[in-house]
């Protein structure tokens, strides 16, 4: 249906003669046709070629109007406003005075902001590495860890889809639910973790996992985020590994490559694009970490930047909070660029 | 069928086999090369690791479900114990006093509106972008695609005031609209590439037969796009069902209007104060089990739907 590209001119310009059988009888019939359904449009007008253009554009506008309106009002405009408000002293009222970079200067001198940013940056760096490494490891175990049958160069383990089903569990659950579950697991008095340690005689290792030490709370948070995403990456990477043709593995086998060499020289380079995309996605998820930290961790133990932003919003410091949001946006963009840069390799087609 | 290795393997393995003891299993063989490992051993090895993560992934969830059947006093004495009798009272408490039933109902109402709206508006926009040429086509596409890059938390505060000004704050329509608007970028992006892959002949045939554009879309193109619609539909269903940030911002006034994730987050506070830990675990179980069961039934489509985003 990509036939006509002529812009809608209303069909009334004198220079363009209608090619249809009848000469259009002027503007009235056409103006009417804009609002009439095709069924009630006179035959004479419908057979006019200009009518097809009109019909097409009427359809395009009709179908795009509502989605675009929703999107513009509730998504685009808030983003643009946020950037503007980050340069104002807006406190939620009717007035917002332009204050230049005051909010950013304030942020620069705000120790609590830096403390939250430190936690967020650590999450951004550590969580993707751990999660992706575990995801790749288990995916490789699933696709290539199997017993060899009838001369296959690689074979999946038995029950691979069962593993994937269970690994994927956390992905279908709400992050709020995960946060509450892990809050109970970590609970120092009646939690699963301390209970397990106690029952195997390691009472000495029992901890206040969330409420005490900052480092321990950060570590516990990292573990929960990684836990909830590993299954996603196992499914993603094992799909990517499954798409690698078997004859490439056979060739590697003939050349005498062992498992480690096969993995690092064949599998990993061939799924690298997926790994890089997953890395960026995981980084953005880890930088967010809003719900997990807000629900699970007591506020005094650990704060990440999005939670710090949310608290400023609840206090009514709207201008300052949006400025923090802009910093988060810049941070996620910089992270994306860095990963794209260090992860760049030649495309391998297969 | 015999378990004889095929010639290629025979070639590479023959040299090793004389030196190494025979692997226990029939199909097992010895690999040559620097990383030589016996496949039978490796197989056991990989199963051991894989099962370890099964325990890690499912363990906390199973613990929650088991604890839900134990009286609170028992649980506080020994958090690790197994249920001795089925203490259904926890579930009754969770359903009525902790209002899990009410929150689930709210979620269903919101989802009924938001999922329908998302799928309808998303596929309408995607269809027009994918199948029609018009000035600004590329711009509209990039506008939607670009929306996926921005962290929602940045838009939070202006969104709050926009909703407030339109009297949509703390209302169901407001929340539904917000879900739709924030699901549109990815939905449109995904479905655009999907509609592009559909053959154009069918569409032309429908038009020649006299179907209007609208009718062609609903009666010809939508049914053809079903696999794509299912994938993105599952993606949006889970995303909206589990959404926490938007309701926290836009639906925070009356506790009776909470959606399920908000209700679960509130559980720790309310049941923690009441000391009714049994109801907390029962509430988590009620929220968790239906989703997991539905997922287990449709696991292939769910996995495809959720990973589709990262593969694009």
Automatic annotation (TrEMBL), chain A:
SUPFAM superfamilies: MetI-like (SSF161098). GO terms for cellular component: plasma membrane. Residues 117-339 form the ABC transmembrane type-1 domain. Keywords: Cell membrane, Membrane, Transmembrane, Transmembrane helix, Transport. The chain crosses the membrane at residues 59-80, 121-144, 165-185, 216-236, 279-298, 318-340. It is a multi-pass membrane protein. Belongs to the binding-protein-dependent transport system permease family. Residues 1-22 are annotated as: Disordered. One of its GO terms (biological process) is transmembrane transport. It is found in: Cell membrane. The keyword Chloroplast does not apply. This is N-acetylglucosamine transport system permease protein. Its main location: membrane. The keyword Coiled coil does not apply.
Automatic annotation (TrEMBL), chain B:
Keywords: Cell membrane, Membrane, Transmembrane, Transmembrane helix, Transport. The chain crosses the membrane at residues 41-66, 103-127, 139-163, 175-195, 216-238, 277-298. Residues 104-298 form the ABC transmembrane type-1 domain. SUPFAM superfamilies: MetI-like. It holds the Pfam family BPD_transp_1. GO terms for cellular component: plasma membrane. It is found in: Cell membrane. GO terms for biological process: transmembrane transport. The keyword Membrane applies. The keyword Cell cycle does not apply. It is a multi-pass membrane protein. PROSITE patterns: ABC_TM1. Residues 1-33 are annotated as: Disordered. Belongs to the binding-protein-dependent transport system permease family. This is N-acetylglucosamine transport system permease protein. It comes from Streptomyces qinglanensis.
């Amino acid at each position: 249906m990509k036939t006509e590209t002529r812009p809608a001119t209303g069909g009334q310009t004198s220079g363009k003669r209608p090619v249809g059988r009848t000469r259009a009888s002027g503007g009235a019939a056409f103006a009417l046709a804009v609002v009439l359904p095709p069924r009630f449009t006179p035959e004479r007008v419908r057979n006019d070629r200009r009518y097809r253009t009109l019909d097409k554009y009427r359809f395009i506008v009709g179908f795009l109007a509502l989605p675009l309106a929703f999107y513009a009002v509730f998504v685009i405009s808030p983003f643009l406003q946020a950037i503007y408000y980050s340069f104002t002293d807006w406190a939620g009222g009717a007035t917002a005075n332009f204050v230049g970079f005051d909010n950013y200067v304030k942020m620069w001198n705000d120790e609590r902001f830096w403390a939250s940013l430190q936690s967020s940056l650590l999450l951004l760096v550590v969580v993707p590495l751990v999660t992706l490494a575990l995801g790749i490891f288990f995916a490789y175990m699933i696709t290539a860890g199997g017993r060899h049958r009838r001369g296959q160069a690689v074979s999946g383990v038995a029950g691979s889809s069962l593993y994937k089903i269970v690994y994927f569990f956390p992905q279908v659950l709400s992050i709020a639910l995960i946060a509450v579950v892990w809050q109970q697991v970590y609970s120092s008095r009646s939690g699963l973790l301390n209970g397990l340690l106690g029952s195997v005689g390691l009472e000495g290792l029992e901890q206040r996992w969330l409420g005490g030490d900052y480092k321990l709370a950060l570590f516990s948070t990292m573990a929960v985020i990684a836990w909830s995403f590993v299954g996603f990456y196992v499914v993603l990477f094992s799909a990517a590994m499954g798409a690698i043709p078997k004859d490439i593995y056979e060739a590697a086998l003939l050349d005498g490559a062992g498992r480690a060499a096969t993995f690092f020289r064949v599998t990993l380079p061939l799924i690298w694009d997926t790994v890089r995309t997953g890395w960026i996605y995981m980084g953005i998820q880890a930088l967010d970490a809003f719900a997990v930290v807000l629900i699970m961790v007591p506020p005094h133990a650990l704060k990440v930047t999005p939670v710090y932003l949310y608290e400023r919003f609840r206090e009514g410091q709207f201008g300052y909070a949006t400025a923090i949001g802009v910093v988060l946006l810049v941070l996620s963009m910089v992270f994306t660029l860095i990963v794209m840069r260090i992860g760049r390799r030649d495309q391998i087609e297969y | 069928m015999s378990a004889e290795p095929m010639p290629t393997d025979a070639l590479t393995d023959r040299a090793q086999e004389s030196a190494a003891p025979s692997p226990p299993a029939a199909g097992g063989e010895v690999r040559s090369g620097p990383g030589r490992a016996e496949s039978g051993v490796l197989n056991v090895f990989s199963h051991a690791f894989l099962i370890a993560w099964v325990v890690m992934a499912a363990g906390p969830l199973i613990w929650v479900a088991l604890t839900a059947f134990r009286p609170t006093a028992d649980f506080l004495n020994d958090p690790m114990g197994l249920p001795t009798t089925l203490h259904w009272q926890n579930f009754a408490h969770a359903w009525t006093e902790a209002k899990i039933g009410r929150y689930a109902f709210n979620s269903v109402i919101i989802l009924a509106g938001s999922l329908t709206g998302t799928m309808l508006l998303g596929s309408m926009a995607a269809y027009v972008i994918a199948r029609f040429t018009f000035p600004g086509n590329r711009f509209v596409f990039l506008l939607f695609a670009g929306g996926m890059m921005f962290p929602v938390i940045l838009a939070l505060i202006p969104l709050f005031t926009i909703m407030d000004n339109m009297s949509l704050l703390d209302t169901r329509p407001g929340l539904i609209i917000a879900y739709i608007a924030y699901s549109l970028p990815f939905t449109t992006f995904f479905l655009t590439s999907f509609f592009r892959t559909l053959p154009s002949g069918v569409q032309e045939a429908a038009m020649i037969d006299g179907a209007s554009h609208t009718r062609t879309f609903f009666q010809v193109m939508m049914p053809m796009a079903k696999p794509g619609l299912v994938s993105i539909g599952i993606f949006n269903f889970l995303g909206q069902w589990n959404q926490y940030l938007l309701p926290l911002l836009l639906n925070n006034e009356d506790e009776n209007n909470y959606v399920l994730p908000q209700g679960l987050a509130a559980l720790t506070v309310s049941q923690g104060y009441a000391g009714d830990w049994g109801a907390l675990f029962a509430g988590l179980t009620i929220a968790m089990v239906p989703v997991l069961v539905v997922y287990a039934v449709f696991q292939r489509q769910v996995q495809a739907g959720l990973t589709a985003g990262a593969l694009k």
